[in-house]
Amino acid sequence: MNAEIITIGDELLIGQVVNTNQAYIAERLNTAGVFADRMTTVGDAEGKILSAFAEAWERSGVVAVTGGLGPTHDDITRACVCKFFGTDLVLDPQALENVRRIFLRRNQEPKKINEEQALVPRGCKVIQNRLGTAPGYFFERSGRFFFVMPGVPYEMKGMMDNFIIPFFEKIDTGLVIRHRTLKTTGIAESFLAERIGDVGSLFSAGSGVSLAFLPNSAGVRLRITARAPKISEAENLIRDVEKKIRDKAERYIYGADETELEEIAGNILASKKLTLAVAESCTGGLIADRITNVPGSSGYFERGIVAYSNASKIHELEVPSSVFEQYGAVSKEAAEAMASGVRIKSKSDIGLSTTGIAGPGGGTAEKPVGLVWIGYSDREKTFAQKFIFNGQRRIIKERAAQAALELLRRTILKLE
Amino acid sequence: MNAEIITIGDELLIGQVVNTNQAYIAERLNTAGVFADRMTTVGDAEGKILSAFAEAWERSGVVAVTGGLGPTHDDITRACVCKFFGTDLVLDPQALENVRRIFLRRNQEPKKINEEQALVPRGCKVIQNRLGTAPGYFFERSGRFFFVMPGVPYEMKGMMDNFIIPFFEKIDTGLVIRHRTLKTTGIAESFLAERIGDVGSLFSAGSGVSLAFLPNSAGVRLRITARAPKISEAENLIRDVEKKIRDKAERYIYGADETELEEIAGNILASKKLTLAVAESCTGGLIADRITNVPGSSGYFERGIVAYSNASKIHELEVPSSVFEQYGAVSKEAAEAMASGVRIKSKSDIGLSTTGIAGPGGGTAEKPVGLVWIGYSDREKTFAQKFIFNGQRRIIKERAAQAALELLRRTILKLE
Q1: Which residue of A19, A190, A353 to mutate against B (max B Cβ within 10 Å)?
Q2: Claim to verify: residue B147 and residue B234 sit in the same structural domain
């Protein structure tokens, strides 16, 4: 069953608010076998709202609308719904009771505009709102559904999770959909595509499977999507394609779905009972920040040194000043000395370091902006690897931090 | 001039990725006098893309499209643009040179699919992409404009900021709009609203001015918007409202528009020729990361210590172990000792520290999750301030980092 999602609100059209509601609704519907194929955002203007309703209702089995159900003058969605379905408003006693309950909890008396929130379009089915005063509702016409929900994210989520998703799970929509995202790093999108080869070798056209390449500063995500009549069939399709992709590109895949590289690396450190210390120059604390986003990281993360000045590299990390004189602060030798310095000083098992030129200034022909050396040291070996990253200062920091965590993961796991 | 924004990508329709691009484009166009009145998202499917193009181009003076310009099989936007405008592809030499430049920097040879990124629809005007391999482009037809940009956010932003906005600023669109955002921190939205009072005292209805409260983990932004026939009129309206707000809430306002607190604090340090060192426990490197996002921060940022273990607090920061025994690692005394320790050790003018419980575990009735002590030390004084932040681990880190930078700013400026 296909769906269109309509979000209403001037704040979205001027870019003041990022539209997280439509992503949430799409993701939830998707798991219940209802596939959004268009999302539309319009402002609080009757003509625009009615034409968006008409277009979507013409094309789709499910229309999901949010926003503009509040009590103030600029909330006109309810009036538009009445006009669209040629109906008027009627009081819903349960919604009224809910408004009064909410105000009672706040020790306040509801005003007239609050109680009017309990008016709903005649002929709709009401979706009660335990978390706010505006009820949702829906219309059914010949097996097609038109849902209306408030735009306050947690109220909308309550209705999606407690009413709309269970509602569709009881209906046989014919097809289920499952996704699996493999996360790669250290390989450009085009090289990854070449390595994986023709998608026809992964799955045949019409099998219900698709593959998407999604690049960002952390790497390229490979999203496998399967549609099938049964969950088990969709999962089998995905498992098969995942195996084929892994056969070709396993070495670049660090994780799957929502897992971040810092969790993967942290879990490896924890399971091997290894401790880590980090010495950062160009990444400026971003590696430590990411590592410490993981609950429990204090179990393996010993300390981080953000050695921005040469003095701090010398004093904190015991990098010999001759290294700077001979090779410069951005060099293989400096990265290695920083990694072993922080490891020895902190009595950690592993030291990890970065030194580079994040820009925008400071680059030379020989050492351009984007040049980064990443150093690794443990009891057996110390080495550094050279990278050249594209992008602006922040992007270079992000790419360098990601590359450092990946170098850590690969080295501990002894991947080539 | 009205605009429609079309974002393309299956990842948006399944809710895997929140659509931040459309908000960015809307916001930027808006400042240039181009008002989005509809946003549409469709998947990587030719029929859906072409019908979205046709509908938008029929209704709007400006159509802005992003997504689906990558080199892999699932990127079909360019082919759809060609079909829509009845044209074919032609090589753009400058775009080709850009592809080669980017690969050269990585010491790699571009492949055929990379070089094919330089093919653009015949008859378009090319928008060069300094940050990636896919060029953007636009068509002009009778004073109406159809823009196509890559979906990678920073590449799209580069094109918006460096090309499209300056382009529209040169065109007379009839009504100009100006925004001004005052950034506050350390005060809750409802208290700030109470302090500012009735908006009727700031501007009258129908004056073309509006005010929005936009809270996030860094604080509450106050956004003033003015529409007027001339830039100077809009700017005067804004200046007047800004003055009235500042009269009432100046002490909470640290900056305006896109400026981040780390830039403000960094500029103050630079202008006063002060150096800074940071000792972070619960913020885990986030303060150092933010400070080093600012170009030129190496001029005043001496070093950061992410002292996650007690051992590192003792050895790196010379916090006496008796402090931990007597008061615990999360205490006023520990924060003060960390701030003065990092200052003295690094020979910096100022030391800043954080110690707290970011959660989810580790809280007690006496020291709950969200408790953070922030310490400050200079040659004259050392003190620490207590905060209790709401939210999950990452939000607590963000709020604590923001509060630490604000404490730094206010203390150096001797604000009460």
Answers
A1: A190
A2: no
Question: Which range of residues forms the domain containing residue B26?
Answer: 2-169
Please tell me whether residues A146 and A25 are part of one structural domain. yes
Burial level of A279, CB count in 10 A (0-12/13-18/19+)? Answer: buried
Find tokens 């009401």 and name the residue: A126
d(CA B98, CA B118): 8
- Total number of domains in chain B: 3
Closest-CA distance of chain B to residue A258, Å: 10
- Rounded CA separation A325/A322 (Å): 5
Distances from the Cα of B275 to the Cαs of A269, B269, B379, B408, in angstroms? 35, 7, 12, 12
Q: How far is A175 from chain B (nearest CA, A)?
A: 15
Residues of A with Cβ-Cβ distance to B45 under 8 angstroms? 37
Contact B119, B37 (CB under 8 A): no
Alpha helices in B184-279 (DSSP H): 189-196, 231-249, 261-271
- Whether chain B has a CB inside 8 Å of the CB on A54: the answer is no
With beta carbons under 8 A apart, name residues in chain B contacting A212: 10-11, 44, 74
Residues of A in contact with B40 (CB under 8 A): 38-41
A189 touches chain B (CB under 8 A): yes
A19 vs B: CB within 8 A: yes
Q: Chain A 210-229, CB below 8 Å of chain B: which residues?
A: 210-217, 223, 225
The last residue of one of the domains, among A256, A289, A320, is: A256
Within 8 A of B306 by CB-CB distance, chain A residues are 278, 285, 288, 292, 303-306
Q: Amino acid letter at A226?
A: A
How far lies A16's CA from each of A245, A360, B30, B214, in Å? 40, 29, 10, 8
Residue-level length of chain B: 416
B184 near B221, Cβ under 8 Å? yes
* Statement to judge: residues B406 and B284 lie in one domain: yes
Widest distance between CA atoms in chain A: 83
Helix/strand/coil for A176: strand
Rounded CA-CA distance A331/A324 in Å is 8
Domain ends where: A203, A227, A256? A256
The answer to whether residues A234 and A282 belong to one domain is no
What is the value of pTM for the model shown? 0.78
The B219-228 sheet, strands edge to edge: B209-216, B219-228, B176-184, B253-256
Question: Looking at the structure, do residues A194 and A130 belong to the same domain, yes or no?
Answer: no
| A-interface mutation test, from B4, B14, B99, B357, most A Cβ less than 10 A away | B14
A125 and A11 in a common domain:
yes
Smallest CA–CA distance from A34 into chain B, residue: B14
- Contacts of residue B369 in chain A, CB cutoff 8 Å? none
- Is there a contact between A147 and A64 (Cβ–Cβ < 8 Å)? yes
Looking at the complex, does the CB of residue B288 fall below 8 Å from at least one CB of chain A?
A: yes
Instruction: Compare CB distances from A390 to B113, B131, B223 and report the shortest one's residue.
Output: B131
Read off the CATH number of the domain in which B238 is found: 3.30.70.2860
Q: Which of B278, B289, B303 sits opposite A316 (nearest CB)?
A: B303
Q: What is the pLDDT along chain A (416 residues), one digit of tens a residue?
A: 899 999 998 889 988 788 999 999 998 998 788 999 999 999 989 999 999 999 999 999 999 999 988 877 678 999 999 999 999 999 999 999 999 988 887 677 888 888 999 999 999 999 999 888 899 999 999 999 999 999 888 889 999 999 998 898 888 777 888 889 999 999 988 899 999 988 888 988 778 888 888 888 899 999 998 988 888 999 999 999 999 999 999 999 999 998 999 999 999 999 999 999 999 999 999 999 999 999 999 999 999 999 988 888 888 888 999 999 999 999 999 999 999 999 999 999 999 999 999 989 989 999 999 999 999 999 999 999 999 998 889 999 999 999 999 999 999 999 87
Shortest Cα–Cα distance, B125 to chain A (Å): 24
